[in-house]
Every structure is written in C-alpha cells, then in structure tokens.
Automatic annotation (TrEMBL):
Domain of life: Bacteria
Residue numbers binding 8-oxo-dGTP: 29, 40-43, 125
Reactions catalysed according to its record: 8-oxo-dGTP + H2O = 8-oxo-dGMP + diphosphate + H(+); 8-oxo-GTP + H2O = 8-oxo-GMP + diphosphate + H(+)
Keyword DNA repair: yes
Organism of this sequence: Sulfuriferula multivorans
Protein name per Swiss-Prot or TrEMBL: 8-oxo-dGTP diphosphatase
Annotated GO MF terms: 8-oxo-7,8-dihydrodeoxyguanosine triphosphate pyrophosphatase activity; 8-oxo-7,8-dihydroguanosine triphosphate pyrophosphatase activity; 8-oxo-dGDP phosphatase activity; 8-oxo-GDP phosphatase activity; metal ion binding
InterPro entries in the record: Aldolase_TIM (IPR013785), Mutator_MutT (IPR003561), MutT-like (IPR047127), Nudix_hydrolase (IPR020476), NUDIX_hydrolase-like_dom_sf (IPR015797), NUDIX_hydrolase_CS (IPR020084), NUDIX_hydrolase_dom (IPR000086), ThiamineP_synth_sf (IPR036206)
Amino acid sequence: MNGAIPIDRTQVAVAVITRADGTFLLASRPPGKPYAGYWEFPGGKVEPGETVHAALVRELHEELGIEVTHATPWLTRYFDYPHAHVTLLFFLVSGWHGEPHAKEGQTLAWQTPGAINVAPVLPANHPVFAALALPAVYGITQAGSDPTGFMTRLDNALESGLRLIQIREKSMPAATLETFARDVLARAQAHQAQVLLNADVALAQRIGAHGVQLNATQLGELSRRPDLPLVAASCHNVAELDRAEALGCDFALLSPVLPTPSHPGAPVLGWGNFAALCAGRTLPIYALGGLSSTDLDSARQHGAHGVALLRGAWQ
C-alpha cells in the first residue's frame, strides 16, 4: 500500500531499537490499556501537527527515558484492531543516549531475530519479526565462466558474515548451473546462510533452496506466490513494487539506484526517487545498483532495509 495515508487511520510511530549484537527491544503493554500484557515495539500515536520522527523521539523519551540520535524510516504496516485502525510507521533506531528503562509500568525484554521468547505478541508485529531476520547485505553471485574459482570468494564472504545470497548466473548452462547452485547451497547452509535462485522456481524447489528471486516478467505473469519459504522480487518502479506486495513477497530489490560500471550512462533512480518509492511500503526493500557496503547507512536513511551487492559482496 503506497501513497497518501488514509485519514481514518491512527498514525503510530514505532521504534525497532537495535543493539550492535542484532538484538532488539520489545515492551509489554501495561495494565489498563487494550491488549494489556501483550508484547510490542515501543512507540505511540503521532499528535496533530507533529512529524512522525518527532513523535518517535518524544514517545521514546516518555516511555523509556532515552534520547534518540539515529533513526531511519523502515516499514509501514496497516492493521485493523477491534478498537482502532492503525498505520504503524516503523523506524530502525540504532543510536540513543541513556539506558532504556520502563517509565510507564511496562516490562522490557531484548530479543533475538528468529528466536522470540516472549508471548503473547500483538498480531500486527509478526511480519516485522520476519523482516528483522533478513540480513542487511544481500550478495548476488558473479561466477561467470569460472564457477570453481568463485567458490573461494564465496567461502571468504561467508566467513566474513554474508548470510543472504542470490544465485544469478544467466549465461551458465542448465546442467552447470544446477551443480553450481547445489555447491553454493551446501556451503551456505554450513554457515546458516540462505540462498535464493534467480527466476528459476523449479530449480529452487528441486535442490531445496530457501527461495526464489522473481524477475519483472514473472511478477506480471504469476497469479500467486510460489511455494517456497522466501520469495523476493526485482523491481524498478511503482507498478512492480505494488505487484510484489500483492503477491506476498518477503522482500524486494529496487534498482538501479546509482550508475554502474556495466551500464554507464543508463538512467538511474537516485536516492530521492528511491526514497519516494520506498515510502509507505509494507515489505523490506534492498537498494541495488552502483553501491558498496559503505553505502548501507545512506540506503537506510532513504528507507532501505539493506543493500544488494554484486562485485562488492565478493571483494
């Protein structure tokens, strides 16, 4: 869902407060509030005349006693509770002064993505937990005519922490591609990394890959989500992002953000257009095109979940 926020919905600024070790903060709702005892991300309603960022800063000071120093826009969720229709505007908060402490009778708990150990949780937050489990860097293979030599670069990247990989080898013969994909998958699984196949749903299912990266043509042709744990979409415009959301994709790539060596002079989005396309989206979006790992903070400042890298992932 993109564009203007419906006027009959209550806007809520929501903080995903993350520490360097990847853990994030949840708080229980205090007695006297709807869904008392349920766990949620800290935050609160946006007051009339207040920006969402200002509401976030105010709410975290009032609820947790901290001063926010670094917060970037992330996801938007639309949810209808029996007592309210809400637009949840999530920010990734990675910098603050002070130690979070409960100021309004709530209980706090630091949680690990993929291993939530508190319950019950407000239902609007379950897709957010899945998004939080996605790494910040998405590596796209570039083996070319040397699949064996690429494995050294892959092993180095996995040792350095890469945990999400797309196999994209359009010029590789089918038999070679399957052998290559099985080898990548085995090495990735040894590091608890996830692997998606570019466009080839059947091959992803056959080798037990974690998912598939749909191309723009598939987005237009598919009537339902492929039967795989992870489904991502390669997008370049509003229509393709809309379709990715409608199909229930887990995340999207949006490109090209900046000029690339392989396509000099080609039109690019630029950060301004990238941010406009990300605004209001319900699924995490990776920025792709002309980027390196040093662009991660810039990407997040403009609404990205992370960066997708070709050359940069294997250096």
